[in-house]
Structures are given as C-alpha cells and as structure tokens.
Give the backbone structure.
Amino acid sequence: MLEGRADMTESKIDRMLLLILRLGAFGCFAGWTWVHFYWEGPYGALLWNDATFELAERFGFSWEGFVGSGANDGLVQKWISGIGWLYLSGCVFTLLVRENSRVLKGCLIAGSGLLLILAFAKYLSAQRQLPMLIEHGGQILSPVLLVMALSLGIRHRVTVATAIIACVMTFGGHGAYALGLIWPTPANFFGMTTVILHLDYGAAKLFLQVAGILDFVVCGALFIPVLRRPAALYAAIWGLITALARPVAGMSLSLNYWGSDQFLHEVVLRAPHFMIPLFLFFVWRKVEPARADEEASTSVARNPVGLLSTFFTDKSKT
C-alpha cells in the first residue's frame, strides 16, 4: 500500500514536471507570436542586406517587390507575417503533443529551428556579440526539452542534461553582459536597474556586476550535487525577477493599456528562463526514505486495533 502511495506521488510529480516544460515552451512561442503580429520579428540584419536582395533578385523579385511600397507589403513583410503563424502553431502544438505524437514532435523540433534563426538574427543585430546568441539557449531548447521528456522520459539523463545546458546558456549569456568585461552591458540593463531600484550609474553598475558573478556561480553550482538544487531554485527566482523587470520598469498608467501591449510579452517569451530551472529544482527532489516509515507509524497510531488483529493472525499461523 505504501509502495502504491509512493508511486502515485512520483506520478503526480512527473505530471507536474511535464507541465512545467509544456508551459515554458508555450510561453516562449506565445511571446514571440505577439512580437511577430503586433510589432515585427527581429530579422532586420538577416534580411535587409545586399546578399539577401541579390538572392531574391534571382527569383525574379524587384526592389519594390522585395522591400514593399507604401501601398503594399513586400516579400520581407509577408515572410515575417507568415512566420508569426508558425509561432502561433507552435503554441498549439505544445498543448496538444503527447508521447505518441510523432508529427507534432517533429513540428516542435522545427519550432526550435525557428527560434535558432531568430536568435541568430538578433546576434547579427548586436554586432555579432556572442552572449546575445548564447543567452537564447533556454528559449531555443525549450521545445526540444518537451519532446525529450515525452520521448525519453521526464527524468532521463539526456533530458536533465539538456535542461542543465539550457540553463547554463541562459545565465552564462546574461552574466557575460552583466559583468561588462568583454562585451558592453546593454543600456536596458542599466535602465531597468536605475528605474526599479533608484540607483545612480555607479551603484547600478556594481549591482549588475555582482548579479553577473552570481550568474556564473549558478552555472558552476548546477554541476555540483550538493549545490545544484539551491542553485536551480535561485536561478528560477532570478530568472522570473529579470523577466518581470521589463514590465515593472516600462509600464505606466499614462500609457495606452498601461503599456501592457509593449512589455507583458517580454515576461511570457522568457518563460524558459525560470521554468527550466524550476524543472531542475523539482527533478532533483529527493524522496526521503524515512517518509514511508513515518506514514506507517501514523497509520498504526490511527488504527491500533488493526495492528493487534494482524499480530494475532500471524501468531495463529505459526
């Protein structure tokens, strides 16, 4: 009976772990869907160049057909709009995919490819700064993690190892930017810190450097058994805080819709930044052996008559 209860508890935890990965991938696709439909996908550096136009020209597109005119959208705008529908499909697929859904799993893997292209475009826009590409690792791998959990198992070593890699990439990229030693710290990092914490430039820089050091400490601690669970919990909390910092710093009562249309999606698309560490925190949860004994003693205390009857029954058999 106690074994059955333990199996039931483990099954509930596994369903919760799968839900965490599902919500992480869904949030990532949902946030970027909003970006593509409401704003525009960040593909400028990837598409607005001579090499891309020359390629389009070979397929018979003129300059107006490629970039568009005031009256009609060009190839680029239509292509970006079409990608928005692919991201919307990714949202649906994350909710519908199951263990035997081979087609949907393949679609989610393709969705990771779309996220990789998007991250590469942002990397080009950032003058090929490596942290810009690395920090998107959690988002890129979030659909892959969901597929791995369904195909290999929620606790499979490959699934867990991929989650660690995703977490390390996210916090490693953030840490490199926050330290500002090799690559310059983005202006919005300073902006959010000064607006929320009311710090001057010097204090904000010190705060970001300390946060950057802690990001790298977390990356290392994830590989140390004694420290990995507290590190994952810190990463989940800090990932949520940094995601929430966008609307907290940017939203205002003076803006239309309080600025929610401009900033809330920044939290949603960063769902893997805190969902993946949260997954690691719970997947590393140890079931205490003493719990079964505690449950047994509790049941005995509640039903001592049952214990006596079992005792006399065993005596009669002997």
Residues 8-289 form one domain. The radius of gyration is 25 Å. The mean pLDDT is 86.
